[in-house]
Amino acid sequence: QIFNQHNAKAPNLERAFHRMAQMEPNLDHDISWFLLPSYWAKMVVALISFICFANSYDGDFVFDDSEAIINNKDLRAETPLGDLWYHDFWGSKLSSNTSHKSYRPLTVLTFRINYLFAGGFYPVGFHVINIILHCTISVLMVDVFSILLGGLQFSNRGRRLNLAPKSSLLAALLFAVHPVHTECVAGIVGRADLLCALFFLLSFLGYCKAFRENKEGHTFSVFWVLVSVVLGAIAMLCKEQGITILGLNAVFDALVINKINLLELIRKLLYKGKVLENAGLFRKGLLFRITLLMCGGASILYIRWRIMGTGPPAFTEVDNPASFADSLFVRAINYNYYYSLNAWLLLCPWWLCFDWSMGCIPLIKSVSDWRIIALAALWFCLIGLICQALCSEDSHKRRILTLGLGFLIIPFLPASNLFFRVGFVVAERVIYLPSIGYCILFTYGFSLLSKQAKKKKILAVAVLGLLLINVMRCALRSSQWRSEEQLFRSALSVCPLNAKVHYNVGKNLADKGNQSAAIKYYREAVRLNPKYVHAMNNLGNILKERNELHEAEELLSLAVQIQPDFAAAWMNLGIVQNSLRRFEEAEQSYWTAIKHRKKYPDCYYNLGRLYADLNRHIDALNAWRNATVLKPEHSLAWNNMIILLDNTGNLAQAEAVGREALELIPNDHSLMFSLANVLGKSQKYKESEALFLKAIKANPNAASYHGNLAVLYHRWGNLDLAKKHYEVSLKLDPMAPGTKENYNLLRRKLEQLHKKGG
């Protein structure tokens, strides 16, 4: 309820007003908890939320961070800022068939600012911003919960009163230390959820400001309603869930500002003789404000639709198997089971996993599956809460339960599969906002228990213990998010049936050079999901490098059979076929890869190698030239062009290509070495020497660099320096081809010169 007093001259009026307001039903009357001034409460919440996630500040880029940040061209200065508005979260064009349609330009903009200020991809700055955002959101929660749990009331001076300081502090602490938030805070891509939550809360607080009576005596401010709509739009530009705040603002307006009894409203609307005024829809401008919210929301969605286009995102069965089920019954049962799992993560966030897809949660296909019990429990609780929210005679209870359920359910709707297919089964990040509703319901439940309990302090100690356990769980989970190895291995015990978990553990091991262990995990990933083409491709690659070519060919052939447009698998199949000397098949595989990915420099490079093996030199040069056009920093393609031209006697052309390459990649020592060889053969000894020395400075342990420089000195007649570099080369690699013979020739020549001199 909103009270406004205008007699500012009355002594102690504000204090008297506060006492009067506290006569309303209040959770704090029953809760045995800490009572702190608002400033100190916010300081405590900020400090504890910081402690929970502080150890993630120096973590690496992990999991989706690679695609959303490191491989995202939208972060680089050369990409025009305007492109952010036409690209998805991962840097792909929204018009592309492969786009996930996740439109979050403001989140990408913050990544870009992080990148520019850090001067590169240094994860510390990214992590620090995430931690600061969560602390800020947790502090804002103190104000939000004070309104949701205590009501919206202002003093005569227009200052909002906190009528539930104890319960709002408890709810804010529950939110701040909830372990399910770790993915959003410790995973950098969780920035989208954090920014969305920040503007989501600011939109709600802005809407509440609309009801502070102004000097003209108006009961609400249109300006603040519009500000709330704008902040909701900003929240949506950070992540899709942000748009739901407009619906929640409408619910809050109806329940708290207008004190509408939903059950009574439904009854009145059912009687034709009752007009809408009697239902309370025109009271205090409610219908006008809801119209503003609806028009604002519709405008935001229309603009987003115009930018994104109408095409749905392309997801696969492994991303969300229930959504591909033929039976409506199977889809409905599994969607509801997913809802129960999300509810369980809020209640007991002990088993957490970075990815819940790919067989982690097998489909329920019949009512005999024991997991049906989880659905029954979920709906039993929800129906019970809804009945109490609608039918209770206690208006305070109705308001809190309805707001709790509203904040629990409405922000979750975009992830519910009800309106469109989503690309995940369960995702911890999407319950960052719904956890607000959980905290409201938990705090209200705690107040009811406290009211009945004889020893309230024991109950308070139990809740304090729960908070402490959650803090420790957050710290532990944050440490697991610090590196991919820890993150992926932590998932093995939670989701042992998840093929993606085994795939990621294997990929991490392969990146570290442990191929034998990687093979084991890749094989398990393929066993768990026989259609997992990425696991087949990576396993085939390792087997190819270990010269197990026939098994590699079988795996890669199966991968392209399952997914015919898998360009990387076609290229790797071509490499294997080339190694098996089946050149025509290899060429066909390379061209198929290029057909499915037109800008594929690595494939052009490998195609060039095939043509070089077949002595089709012009075709090889053209293929490598295509690779360098698509990727100017493709050092291997440049090197192969220089070497081929050198070997075929085209020294002038080789020199021109070498100089062009070094202009583009000036610090590449392998290019310096190749060009130095060409210049030496062209008798440009001084320039050749300078490049050899520069290459050796960059890579002093390359035996071939010293050996070829020695050959240059040998030709040039600088025999002492030639002898020195031959010896260094042989020391680095005693088996270096040709070096020992050249060194022996030089020694004999030096001996002859010594005898003549003697």
TrEMBL record:
One of its GO terms (cellular component) is endoplasmic reticulum. One of its GO terms (biological process) is endoplasmic reticulum unfolded protein response. It holds the Pfam family TMTC_DUF1736. It is found in: Endoplasmic reticulum; Membrane. It is a multi-pass membrane protein. InterPro entries: O-mannosyl-transferase_TMTC, TMTC_DUF1736, TPR-like_helical_dom_sf, TPR_rpt. GO terms for molecular function: dolichyl-phosphate-mannose-protein mannosyltransferase activity. The chain crosses the membrane at residues 31-53, 131-151, 163-182, 188-208, 220-237, 243-266, 286-305, 372-391, 403-424, 430-449, 458-476. Residues 311-383 form the DUF1736 domain. Its EC number is 2.4.1.109. SMART domains: TPR. The keyword Transmembrane applies. This is dolichyl-phosphate-mannose--protein mannosyltransferase.
